[in-house]
Amino acid sequence: MIDHSPARRITSALALCIALAAGTSAQDHCVDFDGVTGYGIHGESAPIQGSIWEAWVYVGALDPAATIPGWVVGWWGAWTASPFRITATGELFGPGGYGNPGSDVVLAQLAPDSWHHLAATFGGECSPSVDVYLDGQLAMSFDVGTQCPSSWYTVLAAYNYLGWNGFYKGRIDEVRISHTARYSGSFVPQTRHAVDPDTWALWHFDEGSGAQAADEV
Q1: Residue 44 CB contacts under 8 Å (≥ 6 apart), including other chains
Q2: Rg of the chain over CA atoms, in angstroms?
Q3: DSSP 69
Q4: pTM attached to this predicted model
Q5: Could you say which of 31, 61, 93, 154 has the lowest number of CB atoms within 10 Å?
Q6: 8 Å CB contact between 90 and 108
Q7: How many CA atoms lie within 13 Å of 167's alpha carbon, on the beta-carbon side?
Q8: In a 10 Å sphere around its CB, with 0-12 CB exposed, 13-18 middle and 19+ buried, how is residue 100 labelled?
Q9: Whole-angstrom distance, CA of residue 62 vs CA of residue 59
Q10: What is the distance between the alpha carbons of residues 171 and 173, in angstroms, rounded to a whole number?
């Protein structure tokens, strides 16, 4: 189900598989994905070139058998892709889906049962370069890809419908997409963001229950 209401909400594709639950850490509330079938979808196309995508993630108990990376955030569209992917084993991968040469590189092994901040800044090229940050530190810089991406829908904890089958398992909070690359070096991640003129979308996931989350923009 895609919600096209003026409030710009993230809507679960299968309501039973998404839960807006109280957090136990720095993030007061979050959205919890089961890694099986649930994902969130937003029916507008997000900016890619010259943008930044960021989120807080929490990987729970690790599953050694779950080695297919699931998307944290991403887009479905022309060259469907995601700036970062995580397996249930805690492996963090970089961008994948639009021909980037470094997309299969494992950037880090995330510690379980703890929050981590992820950010990806996209260059202004048609097939943009990408800098991926983990907890405010540059994890890797990726060269210009081979395809020119554009988005139709913005998705959370989704999969590549062109062939990948993995879903993200874990919690997500404070998803922000901005029209500008906010970071160019090390930074201290904010646990809660505020809307400013450069914010394209911001989801706090403060609802506490239900199957929809409102965009603050």
Answers
A1: 8, 153, 154
A2: 15
A3: P
A4: 0.82
A5: 61
A6: no
A7: 15
A8: buried
A9: 7
A10: 7
On the 0-12 / 13-18 / 19+ scale of CB atoms within 10 A, 136 is middle
> Looking at 32-36, 98-102, 104-108, 206-210, which range is the least confident one?
98-102
**Residue in the block written with tokens 């990726």:** 142
pLDDT bucket at 96, cuts 50 / 70 / 90:
low
For residue 100, what are its two tokens?
């980037």
Residues 6+ away with beta carbon under 8 Å from 147: 79, 98, 99, 127
CB 123 within 8 A of CB 171: no
pLDDT digits (tens, 9 = 90+) for 123-164: 887 777 888 999 999 998 887 666 777 776 677 766 554 445
Instruction: Report the distance separating Cα 71 and Cα 86, nearest Å.
Output: 6
24 Cβ contact partners less than 8 Å away, ≥ 6 residues apart: none
Return the bridge partners of 31, or none. 20, 172
Confidence at residue 142, expressed as pLDDT on a 0 to 100 scale: 82
CB 127 within 8 A of CB 149: yes
- Taken in order of first residue, the domains within the chain and their CATH numbers are 9-214 (2.60.120)
205: amino acid identity, one letter: F
